Amino acid sequence: MKKLVIFGSAEIASLAKFYFSHDSDYEVAAFVVDDEFVDGDEFAGLPLVPFSRVVDLYPPAEYDMHVALSYRHLNKLREEKYHQAKGAGYYLASYVCSKSVSWPDLVVGDNCFILENQTIQPTVKIGNNVMVWSGNHLGHGTYINDHVYISSHVCIAGHCSVGERSFLGVNATVKDFTSIGKDCFVAMDASVVRDADDGTVVIGATGTVLVGGDRRAEKIKRMYFSGN
User: Fold this and answer.
1) How far apart are CA 69 and CA 47, in angstroms?
2) Which residues, at least 6 apart from 63, have a Cβ–Cβ distance to it below 8 Å?
3) Count of CB atoms within 10 A of residue 19's CB?
C-alpha cells in the first residue's frame, strides 16, 4: 500500500484518516501540523509531527500528503497549506469516494476530498484542492476551480463554472450556464440564477447578490469564515 501523511489535527483530518483507511489504497502513517500547533505526540492514534521535521521523518520520495483543513478564511488557509506542502516536495493525494456515480472522463486535480453519494455527470472537471461534501449533483460540462468548498446537497446544473476559493452552502442551487467568480459565498438555500462576479455573496431563494466590497457582504463573510 502507498503511504500517506495527513496535514491537520482536527475534525476533518480525523475524517480524512477514516476515508483514506477504508476506501483507498493508502495507509495513513502520521499527521503533521505547523510547529506552533503541535500539542502532543499523537493524534487519532498516530504520530503527530511538526512540519519542520516531516521531510526527514516521512520523506516525499516515500510518502504522499493530503491537506485536510476546513474553509477557514474563505478557503485561503487551505490554499496556503496546499502550496506549503507542494513546496516541500510532496505529491498531494486526492480522495474520491467509491460510493458515488461518475464517468470515466471525470478530471480531478490533486488534494481533492470528494465524499459519498455524488452524482457527477460527464465532462465535469474539478481542479486542485477542492472539497466536495456528500450528496451533491455536478452537472455535465461544469468546471470547479481550485480551492473551492462545496457543502452537501448542492445542485449545480450543466455548463457552470465556480471560481477559485468560492464556497457553496448546503442546499444551494446554481442555474445552468452560470458562472460564479472567485472568492464568492453562496449561502445555504441560496439560488444562483445569474452570473456572480468575484467576491460576491448570494443569499436567498431569489438569488439576491451583494457585490464584493458591499458592507453587508463583507459582514456576512466575516461572520461565516473568520473563526471556523
Assistant:
1) 18
2) 3, 4, 5, 29, 90
3) 20
Give the C-alpha distances (Å, rounded to integers) separating 169 from 61, 85, 225. Answer: 38, 27, 12
Task: Name the β-bridge partners of 185.
Answer: 167, 201
Q: Which cell numbers in the block locate residue 98?
A: 467509491
Q: Which residues lie closer than 8 Å to 33 by C-beta, 6 or more apart?
A: 7, 8, 9, 48, 50, 51
Identify residue 210 by its one-letter amino acid code. L
User: How are strands ordered across the β-sheet holding 46-50?
Assistant: 42-43, 46-50, 26-33, 2-7, 64-67
Give the pLDDT of residue 214.
87
Domain boundaries, the chain: 2-68, 96-225
- Distance (Å, whole) CA 90 – CA 142: 29
pLDDT tens for 176-190 read 999 999 999 999 999
Helix (H, G, I), strand (E, B) or coil at 65: strand
Fold (topology level) of 96-225: UDP N-Acetylglucosamine Acyltransferase; domain 1 (2.160.10)
List phi, psi (to 5°) of 152.
-85, 150
Return the number of other C-beta atoms located less than 10 Å from residue 151's C-beta.
20
Within 13 Å, how many C-alpha atoms sit on residue 112's CB side? 21
Number of residues that make up the chain: 228
Alpha-carbon dihedral sign for residues 215, 217, 222, 224: positive
The predicted model gives 26-51 an average pLDDT of 97
Take residue 100 and report the three cell numbers written for it: 458515488
SS3 82: helix
CB 163 within 8 A of CB 178: no
